[in-house]
């Protein structure tokens, strides 16, 4: 691929053939100028078509992409805006609903997102940051240690609280219909962005929010949830977590029997499997087992900053299109603790994670999952959702071209979503029935 939008020779024999259409030895200076002008016009036209078609293939074939032609601006900030105007950000993880819960007791009437708002997200900043869509994380805390009992059977309020988080997100989308669009499929996202709206999807951030029940998974899907993170910072009946600050003692050794059944059903209905927060064993087992592409909705690279929440290289190497690999996208988290040593988290440090994941897994397997409104501190230069252009500009300075940047901002995530949707359609067409697997520790069924 050409770098930084620079065009490479693509026409082969076309130009020499065009030049041989007359007797070059006898042509006058005026004839030569006309001939060269003709050649330049043909070259520009063909390269423009090639550029548009190639970029459109990355950018989901939006009709509006036909406006992207020629060379990108040399100035990184201008180039970033040029790219984002046609390939806006689709962030894998934003925690606005939990901010509304904790600060406003779930009362959406008490907030106005059209004005400057507490936290990292409001409509003016979303527009300034060229955001085309994001997953609203519908998060609830892990139960207090030990409160669920050894077998995760003691009742908690996690399902109730999740339903309230879903309600917050849906009501906010409805409150601002000119800004947000409720979206359920990859095609819905493209259509919403084409209309100038911000595509809005839901992600459940932890298997503890399922109440040990695959039936609850299906109910969440019907309510609009399109990914479930297998764990948060706690083990659950489905899988082991990596914790936050250090690895906890394994409980299942990765996925439980119920966890494998959960992935089967997620594949069948088209729910993305999210491996952020999972233990390395869980992630390895899940990426090998899942029939559909998987995601890390908000995780960075462990080789760049060594914390359990980041993805190690031996797992990144499972990602790809080759034999024994699975398509996936790792969406880089902006939380300073996961990015760099204290005081060193900035836009360049975040770009280091993007670069490393691209180096190991490939540029088609990295995206953005900021964790905005779910993190207390932010990197310098990436203080809120208005700052995505700064990261795109930094990557552009490092030699990333328009095609690959369009993948990072959202194209790679959409490809993975489309892959999961295809697998679900195939499984349903094959007549695979809904999973009826129950947690083997339950005694009420």
UniProtKB/TrEMBL annotation:
The keyword Membrane applies. It comes from the Eukaryota. CDD domains: rDP_like (cd01301). It catalyses: an L-aminoacyl-L-amino acid + H2O = 2 an L-alpha-amino acid. GO terms for biological process: proteolysis. One of its GO terms (molecular function) is metallodipeptidase activity. PROSITE patterns: RENAL_DIPEPTIDASE_1, RENAL_DIPEPTIDASE_2. Its EC number is 3.4.13.19. It holds the Pfam family Peptidase_M19. PANTHER family: DIPEPTIDASE, MICROSOMAL DIPEPTIDASE. This is Dipeptidase.
């Amino acid at each position: 691929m050409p770098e930084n939008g620079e065009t490479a020779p693509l026409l082969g024999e076309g130009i020499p053939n065009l030049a041989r259409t007359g007797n070059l030895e006898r042509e006058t200076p005026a004839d030569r100028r006309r001939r060269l002008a003709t050649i330049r016009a043909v070259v520009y036209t063909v390269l423009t078509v090639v550029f548009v078609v190639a970029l459109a293939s990355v950018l989901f074939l939006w009709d509006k992409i036909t406006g992207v032609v020629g060379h990108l601006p040399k100035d990184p900030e201008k180039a970033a805006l040029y790219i984002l105007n046609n390939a806006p950000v689709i962030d894998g993880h934003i925690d606005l609903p939990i901010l509304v819960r904790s600060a406003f007791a779930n009362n959406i009437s008490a907030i106005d997102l059209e004005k400057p708002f507490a936290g990292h997200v409001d409509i003016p900043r979303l527009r300034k940051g060229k955001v085309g869509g994001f997953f609203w994380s519908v998060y609830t805390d892990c139960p207090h240690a030990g409160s669920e009992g050894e077998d995760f059977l003691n009742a908690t309020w996690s399902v109730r609280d999740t339903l309230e988080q879903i309600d917050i997100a849906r009501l906010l989308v409805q409150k601002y219909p000119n800004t947000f669009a409720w979206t359920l499929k990859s095609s819905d996202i493209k259509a919403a962005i084409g209309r100038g709206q911000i595509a809005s999807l839901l992600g459940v951030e932890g298997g503890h929010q399922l109440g040990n029940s695959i039936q609850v998974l299906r109910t969440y899907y019907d309510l609009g949830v399109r990914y479930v993170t297998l764990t948060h910072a706690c083990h659950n009946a489905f899988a082991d977590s990596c914790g936050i600050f250090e690895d906890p003692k394994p409980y299942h050794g990765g996925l439980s029997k119920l966890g494998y059944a959960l992935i089967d059903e997620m594949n069948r209905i088209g729910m993305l499997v999210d491996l952020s927060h999972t233990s390395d064993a869980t992630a390895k087992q899940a990426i090998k087992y899942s029939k559909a592409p998987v995601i890390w909705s908000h995780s960075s690279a462990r080789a760049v900053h060594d914390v359990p929440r980041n993805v190690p290289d031996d797992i990144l190497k499972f990602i790809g299109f080759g034999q024994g690999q699975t398509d996936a996208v790792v969406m880089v988290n902006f939380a300073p603790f996961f990015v760099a040593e204290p005081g060193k988290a900035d836009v360049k440090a975040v770009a280091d994670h993007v670069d490393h994941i691209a180096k190991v897994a490939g540029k088609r397997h990295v995206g953005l999952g900021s964790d905005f409104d779910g993190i207390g501190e932010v990197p310098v230069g990436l203080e809120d959702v208005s700052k995505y252009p700064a990261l795109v500009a930094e990557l552009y300075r490092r030699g990333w071209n328009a095609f690959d940047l369009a993948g990072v901002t959202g194209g790679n995530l959409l490809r993975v979503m489309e892959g999961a949707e295809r697998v679900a359609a195939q499984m349903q067409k094959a007549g695979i029935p809904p999973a009826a697997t129950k947690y083997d520790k339950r005694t009420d069924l």
